[in-house]
Amino acid sequence: MKKELFGKAGNEEVFLYTVENSHGMKAVVSNFGALIVRLYAPDQNGGVADVALGYDTLEQYKENGCFFGAVIGPNANRIGKAQYKLDGVIYHLDVNDGANNLHSHKELGAHKRVWSAEEKENGILFTLEIGDGEMGFGGNKALHVLYEVTEDNELRITYDADSDQDTIINLTNHCYFNLDGHGAGSIENHKLQLFASSYTPTDAGSIPVGEIAPVAGTPMDFTEAHVIGERIDADFEQLKLAGGYDHNWVCDDCDGSVRKIAVAQNASGSRTMEVYTDLPGVQFYAGNFITSQPGKEGKNYGRRSGLALETQFFPDTPNKPQFPSAVFGPKRHYHTTTIYRFV
Q1: What is the DSSP string of 102-155?
Q2: Residue 133, by phi and psi: left (phi above 0), alpha (psi -120 to 50) or beta?
Q3: Rg for the chain (alpha carbons), in Å?
Q4: Which of 12, 33, 129, 233 has the most beta carbons within 10 angstroms of its beta carbon?
C-alpha cells in the first residue's frame, strides 16, 4: 500500500493511501474526512479513468462545500427543524440548511475531522471518536470506515459504529461520480436504474413529509433505466422544489442483506457501475447545486457534473417513527456495507 503526505490539518498530519487490485482499479483515500480523493475504475475497452470528483489539495478539502468524496457523520442528510427527541430528551443540532440540519455540521462533522488510520491486508481502516454532546448528538461514539478494493473491481465500504448510549448514527459516503471521468462535464447523458418502486417526497426544505410514495407514472421512476437528463427538468413539483433529482429512494426488498440497488452507465456504455447495500434508502443527487469551481488536474466542475448515490437511512428518520430506525447504542451495533462495482 502506498502512503504519502497530503498536508496538515492543525497539528495533525494528513495522508493519502492507495488501495488497488491487480486489474488497475485503485482508490486513493485520505484520513482527512475519510475521503475518496481518486477512484480509478476500468471500462470495457481496457481503459482506466478517475471517476470521482475532488480536489488536488488538502486546503480545498478544508472548504469542500459540496462534500466531495467525504464520509458524512454521525448523521447524513437532513433532520427537520435541526432537532429530534429520543428517550424523552430533545437534542438540538446545528441550524445550517434553512431551518434544518444538513450532514450533522458543516465545519465539525466527520468530513472535516482527521481520522486515525490502520493499514489492512487489502484495505485501510479509518476510525474517529466523537464525544457525547458534540454537534448536539448524544453518546460517546466510535466510527469505523473500512475501504477495500477487491479483485472483482469493487470498492467495498464497511461501516461500523458503537455508542455508549442510544443515539442517531447514519453514515454515508458523498462521492460524486462521472463515469466518463471526473472532468468530463454533465452527467445528464448517463443512464440510471434504481431498484426502488417508491420514494420519500419532501417539502420545500427537502424534509420528507412522511409519505412513502410510488414512483410509477412519475419522473421519479427509474425501475427501468432512463437517461438522467430526460426528465430532470420536468414540470413535476418534487423536481422543481429540489432543482432536479435530490431525493431518497426506498430500496426494494430490504431485508438486511446486501443486494443490488442501482446501476449507472455512461452514454457510450463503456463503463457501468453497480451499487449494492444492505441499507433501506439511497439518496440520488444529480449535482444540481455544484457551482462552477476548479477540480482536480485543472478540470472545471459545474452544475450536474457528478452524481451521488448515497446509501442511507431515510432523511429525517429521527422525527419519522414510520421510517426505519437509525437509533443505535449499547444494545444495537451499527454495521452496514456499500459496494460500488465496475463491470
Answers
A1: ESS-TTTSGGGSBPEEEEETTEEEEEEEE-TTGGG--S-EEEEEEEEE-TTSEE
A2: left
A3: 19
A4: 33
Q: What is the pLDDT of residues 245-261, one digit of tens each?
A: 999 999 999 999 999 99
Do residues 86 and 168 make contact, with C-beta atoms less than 8 angstroms apart?
A: yes
Residue 239: which pLDDT band, with cuts at 50, 70 and 90? very high
111 close to 178: Cβ distance less than 8 angstroms: no
CB atoms within 10 A of CB 189: 15
Q: Which of 148, 188, 274, 310 is an active site residue?
A: 310
Q: Which of 174, 182, 190, 247 is catalytic?
A: 174
The pLDDT tens digits of the residues spanning 307-343 come to 999 999 999 999 999 999 999 999 999 999 999 999 9
Note the pLDDT tens digit of each residue in 64-86.
999 999 999 999 999 999 999 99
Q: Please determine, for residue 183, whether its predicted confidence score (pLDDT) is greater than 90.
A: yes
Report the alpha-carbon distance of residue 240 to residue 177 in Å, rounded: 23
Whole-prediction pTM: 0.98
pLDDT of 55 > 90? The answer is: yes
Torsions phi, psi of 69, nearest 5?
Answer: 70, 5
| Helical ranges in the chain per DSSP H | 58-61, 237-242
Please, which residues have CB within 8 angstroms of residue 315's CB and are 6 or more apart in sequence? 77, 78, 79, 200, 202, 206, 207, 208, 248, 283
In three-state secondary structure terms, 297 is helix
182 is catalytic: no
Are residues 70 and 33 in contact, defined by beta-carbon separation less than 8 angstroms? yes
CA-CA-CA-CA torsion sign (184, 189, 291, 261): negative
Decide if 310 is catalytic: yes
Per residue in 110-144, pLDDT (tens digit) is: 999 999 999 998 899 999 999 999 999 999 999 99
- Let me know: does 143 contact 110? Beta carbons within 8 Å: yes
> Residue 49 is which amino acid?
A
Number of neighbours of residue 180 by Cβ within 10 angstroms? 20
Q: Give the separation between CA 70 and CA 128, rounded to whole angstroms.
A: 13
